[in-house]
Amino acid sequence: MASKGASMSFSRKSYRLTSDAEKSRITGIVHEKLLNDYLHRVFSSDHETLAATSRKPLNFQNLPEHLDQLLQVDNEDEESQGQVEGRLGPSTVVLDHTGGFEGLLLVDDDLLGVIGHSNFGTIRSTTCVYKGKWVYEVLISSQGLMQIGWCTINCRFNQEEGVGDTHNSYAYDGNRVRKWNVTTTNYGKAWAAGDIVSCLIDLDDGTLSFCLNGVSLGTAFENLSRGLGMAYFPAISLSFKESVAFNFGSRPLRYHFVAGYRPLQDPPCADLVRAQRLLGCFQAVLSVELDPVEGRLLDKEGSEWQLQGQPTILLTLAHIFHHFAPLLRKVYLVEAVLMSFLLGVVEKGTPVQAQSMVHQVLDLLWLFMEDYEVQDCLKQLMMSLLRLYRFSPIVPDLGLQIHYLRLTIAILKHRKSRKFLLSNVLFDVLRSVVFFYIKSPLRVEEAGLQELIPTTWWPHRSSREGKESKEVKEEAAEERIRRRAYERGCQRLKKRIEVVEELQVQILKLLLDNKDDNGQKGEASRYIFLTKFRKFLQENASGRGNMPMLCPPEYMVCFLHRLISALRYYWDEYKASNPHASFSEEAYIPPQIFYNGKVDYFDLQHLGGLLSHLRKTLKDDLASKANIVIDPLELQAATMDDLDEDEEPAPTVAQVPQQGQRPTQALAVGGALPLPRPGWLSSPTLGRANRFLSTAAVSLMTPRRPLSTSEKVKVRTLSVEQRTREDIEGNNWNEGLLLGRPPEEPEEPLTENSLLEVLDGAVMMYNLSVHQQLGKMVGVSDDVNEYAMALRDTEDKLRRCPKRRKDILAELTKSQKVFSEKLDHLSRRLAWVHATVYSQEKMLDIYWLLRICLRTIEHSDRTGSLFAFMPEFYLSVAINSYSALKNYFGPVHSMEELPGYEETLTRLAAILAKHFADTRIVGTDIRDSLMQALASYVCYPHSLRAVERIPEEQRIAMVRNLLAPYEQRPWAQTNWILVRLWRGCGFGYRYTRLPHLLKTKPEDANLPSLQKPCPSTLLQQHMADLLREGPDVAPSFLNSVLNQLNWAFSEFIGMIQEIQQAAERLERNFVDSRQLKVCATCFDLSVSLLRVLEMTITLVPEIFLDWARPNSEMLLRRLAQLLNQVLNRVTAERNLFDRVVTLRLPGLESVDHYPILVAVTGILVQLLVHGSASETERATSVLLADPCFQLRSISYLLGLPEAPAPGTALPVPDRKHFSLQSYTDYISAEELAEVEQMLAHLTSASAQAAAASLPTSEEDLCPICYAHPISAVFQPCGHKSCKACINQHLMNNKDCFFCKATIMSVEDWEKASTSTTSSAA
């Protein structure tokens, strides 16, 4: 390692302790007196009181002897650490993983950390105590159900009873805030993740107590059983997935207790004294400088000290590290001595001074210690730092976290240390993501939030009717003052948090540095980070059920935001020096990354299915569009793994490489050697079908040249760990990650390839757990709203309560105080959540990811069939990030304020409209997500307008996909989209909530189903045009709608029959809630299908009423049949529907007369009132001809038991019965008039039809429906029916009703003997 200010390099080997002859020559470099003064200055002992003249001269010959005397420890400190009175067991105390446990537990390698893996597992330590005062600490990693304390060896535990549930076992439970010893009582305070519990036992007085973060919770138990055979073990019982870490004394206790308590494991006192004295000597070297010219010693600040290469100083340091190096490998000493020293450096000096000093110290460690010694020391140092950061309490200025992060930055700025830690420690040994997390304080008092935010505020939407306007104005003014004071407090808190966040970003900037290779062997930090980061993503993507391996989602959220900040910094920095590159605002992932195999996507799904399937089916497209040739041997190898795919022809014996042959290079297609299959392809940790194409799976030709059969390009078969900078960034002939550029992509790179892979990982992180965590944190805001509502109700009751009822007033006042205190606490916590999770900067980060996903999808879509290679999570992140921006960050921040908001909405709308029915997307889940996202999109005015802004051809294509027949596809969401486009235009269809639900508890107003109607006349017009377009579009669509309506309503009726039967049984019984939910869903589907039919008839009435069109008569007859069935079932007096609606069962709240009857009424009004005279006559004749028609059902709509005589006035409806006239807030007077006109028309037409009807012989009736005369004969079998029945049947089936023969044609039966008119089947 080169020292600063010197032109030569030093190694520890060069400066090992020299022989006497060598020493004599070296001592002549400086004056003997000066050397003596220098060595005495460095190695003086604290108790040395001799005058300078009487001191024994020191030189390098007698320095070892002097140093041995200096490090000699008193006998008391040298006491052995074996058996100590009052303690039994090994001197190194760990958890007893061999016999001292109950249940299933996961124990860390150091036997100090434990994770519950069963219902209530218990484990104790290997050492017990029977006399004296003892203490140990427990670091709480999760705040769930745990009981921590002491037990004896005779205690017996099981999956239900743990520590504290038996005699002679005692425990503290901070989750339920109780203490346990067979019985339980309230004790202590609630703990949170990151707290430290100290467990103290005094066996002299027989007492047991606990401390939380160094604060005593008081004596928990007294009169402990003592005496012969009574010894107490530290023990814990914890539930599933809870985790803690013990400190019995292997590391310095975080909180020291002076009153005679000692840790279970004795500290290395002798080594501790030696290390502290050696540290003093080391500090003396850094604070003194030799001036050989003047012959004197100069005092100097440690941060200004430089290693100039003087042999005197080097030999002095060599003597110090000869003794110091072995000590710095011990955990306790690293934390107690080195960590304390470095933290002191950070706390005392400025960041620049601290950085300089730490850099000097690390330089000296690497110079004078063996590599394995420095590596052990750095590993323990970072573990201690991470533990201190994670378990430090939140103080008002976040000072502790800032100091630990500053020291971490100072260490990581040292290049050699950074690379070692990145390669071996940060992601392999530590969960280093913790460094990027800012934990949320459970106790706002200890975090100082009361001082930062003295005034609390929460949304207050009061407005009782009858309140005077003056009072409202005064309250609003007071509310405004409180809100502004609260916002000022939130800003103060945010500024303090931003200091920590900036330090965390600095750490990631260091890890993403790609200029620190310095021409030496080895990779820059960024490429080491990429390898570790990809493994980190794989663990979290593939091990979703393995909780210990997963990164907690709250950590992932913070990590993502810091990573985005560092990534954008380097992206824009690269743009500044490369004008042809793009800004981070224009970033996206080029599509070739998805199919060239340079980036591993583990077992994550691609849009087109499994990777092995895509490589087989799209190999020709890869060759023609991207110059990528898939090797046939690799395809065959993949086929052997995927049993559901067709097998490729097996290769010959000569072509199959022998086991164990793994050449590092392979020739491309046309070469002499086949491509070998790397061994890691069979690794159980990787998905079988989703493997690296780049590792011997593909031969990549540079896209700038045409594919030539004579060219041979070597492809290195490297795994992730073996990738170098060239494999990622590329070089003159190799484009690295961007190999296989399609012609649609620009030749100029966006940025450095490595940053593209980091960006891809950031998008994946959001998909893994960040989105779910963002939704979870909204719970704090929901709690605030619930308590605010409760407080308003309580204040309301206080105002209305009579003053004479003092008892009620007292209870209400008490409740008001409780709610106010809780709201104060929650509003301050909400301020913390908003600053760390939902701030404007965090919102912009998520918005940036959304825009990246949109651009990535657009660019990948241009590649045609290769779009299928895109991972599904890009579409998921686009959908979910938009949802998060819309639902999670309000009302403090609005998405409408974001730059380019309207354009982004339109681009997302175009993607949803195009891809919800994209045949290149095969995954059921992602197709459903796209459909649901589009359904939600059309519910809100802003997003619906965005759909209307997309290009016309895309809108028409979207509507055409929506009008595809409902069979063989999930149609419910499609129907919901069409309904939302119509809602607000239909008959009585202007409501947000159903009228009968207005008095019930309001639901979440953000739900798509509760949005105000916002119909789209533009999309309705597209629908009308398409239905008129061809002869097959409308019949096939409407026939499928009628089929689904028949199914949904039949299922609904069958279910309410079962529900009614269950309700009428005498014995007590319960209806399955799932059955109720399915029943309500079938009802809602029936209503929505009726609304789609209403929209169709309104927009394109000729489809049903223009009988010159094929299938129009048949569709109208089917429609009339279904409408009559619905009306008869719903309107019959005291029928099944009535009885179930009256029960008002939970889960069937949406089932009511109004929604379904107004939908049917809307269809009838369009058929019978709005059409021309001829159309009305046709519709009337078909409706009356249906045998199920009952005029009473039409009268029921207006609350009339029977139809009035023609020409008479309508009587006043009975208010006890359903009537459309009772819903004047939802149905206009014009609509009611149309219903009355329809009723009058049907009454008259019904009377005329009854008078004109002639009796028909039963033999002449259709044997299928018995409603119409026989009018058609089938050929060739000769069976007969009415035309309506056979036409409806032929839409779905070509077989005869009776004999199952294939029907070739249908002829008119009456003219069969004289006419040849027929219609082809």
Automatic annotation (TrEMBL):
It catalyses: S-ubiquitinyl-[E2 ubiquitin-conjugating enzyme]-L-cysteine + [acceptor protein]-L-lysine = [E2 ubiquitin-conjugating enzyme]-L-cysteine + N(6)-ubiquitinyl-[acceptor protein]-L-lysine. CDD domains: RING-HC_RNF123, SPRY_RNF123. Its EC number is 2.3.2.27. Residues 73-253 form the B30.2/SPRY domain. Pfam families: SPRY, TPR_RNF123, zf-C3HC4_3. InterPro entries: B30.2/SPRY, B30.2/SPRY_sf, ConA-like_dom_sf, RNF123/RKP/RSPRY1, SPRY_dom, SPRY_RNF123, TPR_RNF123/RKP, Znf_RING. Residues 1262-1300 form the RING-type domain. One of its GO terms (molecular function) is ubiquitin protein ligase activity. GO terms for biological process: canonical NF-kappaB signal transduction; protein maturation; protein polyubiquitination; ubiquitin-dependent protein catabolic process. Signal peptide: none annotated. Keywords: Cytoplasm, Metal-binding, Methylation, Phosphoprotein, Transferase, Ubl conjugation, Ubl conjugation pathway, Zinc, Zinc-finger. It is found in: Cytoplasm. It comes from the Eukaryota. Pathway: Protein modification; protein ubiquitination. One of its GO terms (cellular component) is cytosol. PANTHER family: E3 UBIQUITIN-PROTEIN LIGASE RNF123, RING FINGER AND SRY DOMAIN-CONTAINING. Component of the KPC complex composed of RNF123/KPC1 and UBAC1/KPC2. Interacts with UBAC1 and CDKN1B via its N-terminal domain. Interacts with RIGI (via N-terminus) and IFIH1 (via N-terminus). This is E3 ubiquitin-protein ligase RNF123. It comes from Otolemur garnettii. The lineage of its organism: Eukaryota, Metazoa, Chordata, Craniata, Vertebrata.
